Please model this.
Amino acid sequence: MYVIVGAGATGSAAARLLADAGEWVRLVTRRGIGPVHERIERIPVDAADTARLVELAMGARALFNCAAPPYDRWPAEFPPLAAGMLAAAEQAGADYVMLGNIYGYGPTDGPVTEDRPMAPSSVKGRVRARIWDDARTAHDAGRVRVTEVRASDFLGAGAASLFTLTVAPAVLAGTPAVYPGDLDAPHAWSYVGDVARTLVAAAGHEQSWGRAWHVPSTSQLSVRELAGRLAAAAGAPAPALSPLTAAELEQWGRGDSVLAEVQEMFYLFDRPTLLDASRTRAVLDVDATPLDAVLKEMTASPRPSSTCC
Model:
C-alpha cells in the first residue's frame, strides 16, 4: 500500500500508475478528490494534520509528497507542510518520496546533474533547498529513507507551468502570447507522466535512497520552438510570441501575487536551462515520452486550473 499526498496532475498520475499495477493507494487531499479507481481510496485530510497522516501511512511502503501550498505562500507554508510529512513517514516507518524541482540549484550553465550542490539564489529556491536538506539529515541519521525526484517546467494534460498557463492556451486559441526571458533559449520540459513514472521507480529501487533523481526531459526545445510544435499538433496558426522583459514582468506582478513570485525566477527563462537525467535512465530505467505524444495529449486537455510553477 502507498500513500500519496496531493492530487494534482503528477500525484494523480502516480496514483493511477500504482493502482493499475495492482497496488492499493491512499490519495490524500483536503477535498478528497482524485482519479476514480477501485484501488485508489480518496481521503479528505488536511496534509498539515501530521497525526492523521501517521495513521494513514501505517503499513504503507512509501509516503509520496506531491503537494505544495499556493505559489505565493511558499516561504511561510511549505517548510512546515514538508516537515509534517517527513515526520509522518518517519513515525509510520514508511519510505519518503518527494516531488521536487530545480530551484535549489540557482543559476546554472550547461546540463545540470543531481550531484550539483544546492546554491539557491531565490527565496523559493532556499525553501526547496531547506526541505531537501532536512530530509537528507533525517535519512543520514537513519530515521527514514528519503529520495527526491526533480522536474523542470511541466507539460501534459492538467500540467501547471508558466508555459501551460500562458503560452499554450494562446497558441491553441490562435492569439498572441508573451513569455518572460529569451524565447530561443533551450529549456528542459518535464512531462507529468514521466514525472510520475520516475517517482514510482524511485520508490521501488534500492539504489534511490538518500539521493535525488532528474526526470528525463521530453524536450529541450526553446519556448518559441515548443509553441510552434504545439500549434502544428493542434492545426493552429503559427504562434505570435513576444518576450516579456524583467521590468515588464515586475510591472505585471504588481497586480498579481502569483506573477509577482515569478520575478525572482526570471533567471530560469533568460538562459539555457537543461538537465542531465542519464542516471535516471541507467539506474531507474525511465526514459522520456516522445514530445509528439505529449503535445497530442495537451491539444485534447482542458486548461489547468491550478497555479504555477
Remarks:
- The radius of gyration is 19 Å.
- The domain at 2-152+192-203 is CATH 3.40.50.720 (Rossmann fold).
- The chain has a mean pLDDT of 95.
